[in-house]
Amino acid sequence: MRLFSVALRLFRLAGEAFFFLELNRLFGRFLHGTVHHRKTALRLAESHLLSHVSAPCRTVTISLPSNLAIHTIIVGAAATNPTNIGARPLVLLHGHSMGAASFFRNLDHFIHMGFTSIFAPDLPGWASSSRPLFTGDVQDALAFFLIPFYDWLSHFNLPSFTLAAHSLGAYLAHEYTVLHPKRVSRLILTAPAAITRNTPLQIAMWFNFTPQRFLTRGGLFAHLIFATLYPSTKAYNLPGFRDFTLFSNSLMHSSGDAAAAAMIRITRTGLFSWQSECVRPLLERVSRLHCTVHIITGDDDCLVGVHAVRQLHTAMLAAGNHATIEVIPGADHSPHICAPQLFAKAVMRSLSHFRSSHPYLQPSASVTSPFLFTS
């Protein structure tokens, strides 16, 4: 009789849990809509962001031999004439769980710096690009990102280009440059991730259980987590940017998250103790490159500390590279988002074209973006 009573209680508990989860799912469906609706909302949010870019701009979807579709933003000369890339093309790679449109406050700056065309893909597994299922280890994770990137680049037939990237994108950009040194004429790494082998456990846990993974379930609970954790600062709440972040990460199967998690290893060392490490850290991959390397970071970066970034810069110099470093005061892990004007000045200095009164860093009649010169 006691066993029957216990079984009945467990059955009721399971029923209540199922009811809660189903209610949570239905609320999420009401908030976020169907997957098709979220994809449409994501494109609309991206269009809203790109409407603030004054340079010629368009989006295309590049079909790869692997049947993946890579959503791409093209700015500058190639946006109006695909055969006119110009002498100074720039390729941008976004960071973890983001998309190419996260550079929307920087695109006009790059064009004014003299880059003739800009090509920025949504990396596979994120935003509007294909999200193939990921399984495997760190080598598979690199292949997951770099093979499609290589095929995507082949579509544009760029002989050489400047490669600028943020966070995980910066890690991938360095790996690509090591593998294809003659293609990259200049490398700009902004807040590069995965620098040291030692990784704080809380950061490792974040990469394995990101808020985005909750969002893919689309529930009310997931929405509350997003609303709680999303930054409250003005830079991250410009019109369209919050929606872009939300719908980029609420689509099903964020396989980019799973691939990135493979770069972090968490091992149990005791009954209630664990340790974590980056499996393939940048510091152990540094070598002599054929191009100049510019590193930019914020001094308020809680994910990648300034000390680690300085270690990377020192290692770059020790390997015989011509490398520079810029630390942006008050900037977080995404200085190109939170302080776009200071970020632009840092890039200008690194390119040796900076002047304290450079006309491109002052508002002018030719620049119509309301966000271009605000930080």
Automatic annotation (TrEMBL):
Chain ranges of the AB hydrolase-1 domain: 90-345
Keyword terms of this UniProt record: Acyltransferase, Transferase
InterPro entries for this protein: AB_hydrolase_1 (IPR000073), AB_hydrolase_fold (IPR029058)
Protein's GO biological process: lipid homeostasis; phosphatidic acid biosynthetic process
Molecular function terms from GO: carboxylic ester hydrolase activity; lysophosphatidic acid acyltransferase activity
Highest taxon listed in the record's lineage: Eukaryota
Cited Pfam families: Abhydrolase_6
Entry's family note: Belongs to the peptidase S33 family. ABHD4/ABHD5 subfamily.
Protein name, UniProt field: Putative 1-acylglycerol-3-phosphate O-acyltransferase
Originating species: Gracilariopsis chorda
